[in-house]
Batch of 4 targets.
Target 1
Amino acid sequence: MTNWQDENVHIRRMTPEDYDEAYALWERTPGMHLQSLNNTYGGIALLISKNPDSCLAATDGDGKIVATVLGATDGRKGYLYHVAVDEQWRGHGIGTTLINRVQDVFKANGIVKVGILVLVDNVNGQEFWKHQGWKTRPDVIYFDHDL
C-alpha cells in the first residue's frame, strides 16, 4: 500500500450509497463522460459489488467525498473509471494515492496491466495520465455498443 496520509482526508471503500454525492463530483469534473448507460445507480452499484476492494472514495474531515476511483477487472486486465478529484483538493496527491491503492489491489490479484479511457478533448486528463507514466495505445481504436 502507498504510504500517504493527510489528517484531513480519509480513504475508504466506496459504497452504492455514495452514488449521488460521487455523481455530483463527476458532473463538476471537466472531461468526465457520463452519458453511458453504465453510469446509472444500478450500473455503478453493480461495478462496486463485483469490485469492492478497488472502488474507493476519499473524504474530507466532514465526510464529504472529495475524490473517487472505480477499479474493475475482467480477470486478466484492470481498468480505471471515474478517477476524479474535487478541484480544491487537487495537487495534494489524493488522485495518485487512489490510483496506487487500486493498482496494489490489482497486483495482489495477479493483474499485470491496467487501462483507462480518456476523452480526446480532455487535455488536462491526458496530461495527468502522462505525468503518471501512462502511455497511449496508437495501435487500437476503441468501439462500444449499447445493448
Target 2
Amino acid sequence: MPPPSAPAAPGAPTPGRPPELLRPAGGITLRRRAPAQAPALNAAVRANLDHLRPWLEWAAEAPTPDRTAELTAAGVAAWDAGTDFIYLLGLDAEPGRVIGSFGLHGRIGPGALEIGYWVSAEHGRRGIATAAARSVTEAALALPGIHRVEIHCDPANTASGAVARRLGFRLDRVVDAPVRAPGETGRKQVWIQERRPPGPCTVW
C-alpha cells in the first residue's frame, strides 16, 4: 500500500480540491493534515511501527519529530499543488489524537486517484478503515475530472483487500511489484471503483 505519511511521486494536478474536513459515520473525523498535527502523527506512527512495518517501506525505522514535520510540510505543499491530498484520522471523543492516515494520490494518470491508508492496530477490525475509505472515495469521485479511484495492496495484506471488497471496488488485475517491505510477496492487487454514470432521464 502506498505511504500516506510520506511524500508521493509527483503527479499531474487534480482539478479542484476535496473538502478539508470529512465526517464519516461512527464518531471519526478526517482532517487535512496540517503542521500543528505533526507531533500527534509522529506519536501515532511510532506507536504502530510493528503493525505498519510488514506493508509500508517508510515504517522500517521510527521517524524523528523533525522528519515528520518535514513530511507534513511536503504534504501541505502537495495539497496546495493539487497532486496529493492527505488526511489524518481522529476520534471525535479524543480531539487532537491521530489514529491513522488516508491519502489521495494523483500518480496513476489523468482522471484517477489512488487511495493509501493505515489505521492504528488498536482501532482495527471495527469498521473504521472502511468508513473512512468510503468517505475519501466519495470525495475523490466528486471532484471534476476524476472518474476512477484505485486501491493498490499486496495480496497478503488481507485487511486492506477486505476494505476494498467491502466498498464494492472491483479487483481489476494482479501485477508484479517490487518487494519493499517484509510482508510483501512481489505481487500487487489493483482494485478499482469508477464513477457511476447518471441514471436515465425521463421526459414527460
Target 3
Amino acid sequence: MELRQIEYFIAVAEELHFGRAAKRLQMTQPPLSQQILQLEKELGVMLFERSKRHVELTNAGKVFLQESLHALTQLEQAKAAAQRAQMGMLGRLVLGFVGSATFDILPNLVRAFQDQYPYVDLVLHEMPTPMQIEAFRRKDIDIGFVRTPVVDRLLSLLSVHQETCIAVVPKLHPLAQRSSVSMGDLSAERFILVEREVWPSWYDDIVTKCREAGFSPIIRQNVKEIQTVVGLVAAGLGISIVPSSTANLHARDVAYVNIEGNAPRVDMSIAWRTDNNSPIVKQFLETAVRLTGCDFTQNS
C-alpha cells in the first residue's frame, strides 16, 4: 500500500464520483479506477459499492476513510515535527548548572529560550562544575553552566557573566554596618566556604586574596552549596565571601557588604561538547549570545 493510493481513495470517497475525483487529482479516470481496485485487493475488502450512476462507501470503506484521514493528519504532524527538529525548534535539551547560576543568568536565559522554542523539552540538573565535566564525557548533558576556568579539550566555552565577590556577615555583626570592608578586615573572622572540590578556582582565589592581605583564613566549615553558606552565616557560625549575585538571595539575618580593592572574582560560562552539532544546542547558544551580548570569539 502506497501513500498515493490512500490519497486517491480519499478523493473518491469525498467526491463519490470517479470522474470528479480524477479531475481533482489531475489524472484520467481509468488509472484511478485501477488504483482503487488494487487497493481493495491488497486490503481484501470492498471499499465502494459501484453502479453506472452511483458510487457509495461500504461500511468497511467508511471505517477506512476515517482511519486514512487520521493517518494523513498524523503524517503531516510528523512532517512538521521533523522540520521543527531540523531547525532546533523541537526535541530535548539537557542542561547542567551550578546552583549559583539560579541567582542571575540561568532563569532569564531559560525563560527567553522557552518563550522562543516552546516545543523543546528542557531537562535541568544541578551539579558542580567538576561533575558537569564528567557528565559531558558520558554525554549525559548537552549544555552546562560552569564556573571557569575550565581546561578540557572536549569542551567549548562561552563566557556569559563576570562578577566581583562581596562579604556576607550576620546581620548583627559589627561589619554589617559598614558600606565596605577590605580583605584585611576579615583576618580575625571564621570563614564558611564552598568546599574546594565543588568550586576549586573560587576556593583558591579566596585563599590567595586572604594571603595577599597578610593572613590565612580560619575555615570553620566547608559546605557544598552557596545557599548553605548563607544559611550558616545567618546562624552566626561565621562569615563568608560570595558572588555579588548572591545578594539576590534575600536571606534574613545576614548583610551583604562590598569588598574594597582586589576582591575575588567569579566567572560563569556556558559549556558544550565541541563535537555536538545539535541544532537545539546551536539555538540555545544563539539565545545566550542575544541575551547577554557576548559572542563566540570567547570560545576556548
Target 4
Amino acid sequence: MAKKKVSIPQYGTVMRRGIQYYRTRITDADGKRVDLYAETSEELYEKELEARRQVEEAVFRRKHPTVAEYCEKWLLMQSAKVSSSTLKGYTQNMNNYIVKPLGDMYLSEVTADDIRLALIPLSQKSAGLYSTVNMLLKCVFYSAERNQLLDYNPCVGISAKGGKPGKKKNALTDEQVKLLLETVRELPPYVFIMIGLYSGLRREEILALQWDCVFLDVPTPYISVRRAWRTEHNRPVISTTLKTKAAQRDIPIPKCLADCLRQVKATSISEYVIADSKGQPLADSQFKRLWQYVVVRSTKERTYYKYVNGQSIKCKVTPIPGGHQKNNPKLVYSLDFDVTPHQLRHTYITNLLYAGVDPKTVQYLAGHENSKTTMDIYAQVKYNKPEHLLSVVNAAFSAPVGA
C-alpha cells in the first residue's frame, strides 16, 4: 500500500541575519500569538505539529488537572490567607495523605471509593490528623467543583469521623493546680503558667503578649489580646493575625494574676511579658526548653539515649513520686500527673463553667469563634459526673406515671 504523501503548507519566508527562514504563527495555550521558524518547510511543519500538540495538551490539562496539580494550585491560593506555619502543615499533610495515593489521577476520574481507599491508612492515625486530611480533601474538591472542573464531587457523603481517638486531657483539679504552682514558683515557666491558668490565653497569645496590652493600673485590670506568636525556621514571628476574629478580646484578670504581673513588670527589661535574656520573644526551641522544667518534674515515664563505647543505647526512666533526679538532687519528681500548655487554658474554661458563668460569656473570654467548642466543654463539665445529676434525675421521676 502506497504511503500517503503529507501535504506541507506554503509557509512565508523571512530573512534573519542574512539567512532565509520559513515562518508561521500559532496561538499558544494563553491565547498569545507565537512565531515559529525553521530553515526548511519540512522542519517547520514538524515544529508546528509538535507546538500544536503541546498547546492541546496544555488546554486539556487546564480543564482536566491531576489531583497533584490542583492541590499545588490550591495551596498557592491559600498562601495569601493563612500563616506560613499553617501552610507548612497543610502542605505536609496534603503531600503525605492526598498526593501520594491520588496525585497521578485526573480530578475528574476520582471516585468516592478512591477517596475512601486513600483514607484507610489514616484510620490508624489520630482522629485529629484524620479530620485535618478529610478537611483538606473536601476543600480541594469543593474548590474544583466551584470552578466547574468536576461534574460530580466525590467527597459528598464522605464521613468526617475516623482515626483513633486521642487520650483525653482533663482540666487540672484544684489540688493539681496548687501543686503545679508550688513546683514551678521559682522557675522560668511560672509566669506562663499563671497567665494560662487565670486568663485562658492560648500559647501563641501568651508568647506574643506585650506590656502595652496588659492594663494593671485601672479599676478592673485586664489583658487585651491583639497579637499572636508563630515561628518560622525556629525564629519567632509576632503578628496581629490571630487564630480567628473572636480571638481578639479583652479579658479581666483576677487579683492573683494581676499581682504576679505587677511583680514581673517591675523588673522587666523587655516589651514582652515572656522574653528571653535579651528581651526578645522566645524561639520555638526556647519555649520547649522552658516547658521542660515542668516535664522533668513529673512522674511520667520517659526515654533518653546515652552513648556507651560509641553506641547509642535507649534508656527508660520511671520516676518515683518524691524521688530525686540522679544527676540533679535538687530536682524532685513532685508532679504525679501529666500537664500540657493547652491544659492550662482548658482548666481556665472549665473553672469558669463550674463557677456558673454562662456559656456565651465563656465563649467570648475563651475567644471561641464557634459556640459548639464551648458547648462541648460545657456538656462535659455539667454532665460527666453522676453525683451532679442525681438531684436532676430524682426531680424528673419524683412522681412516676401510675404511682
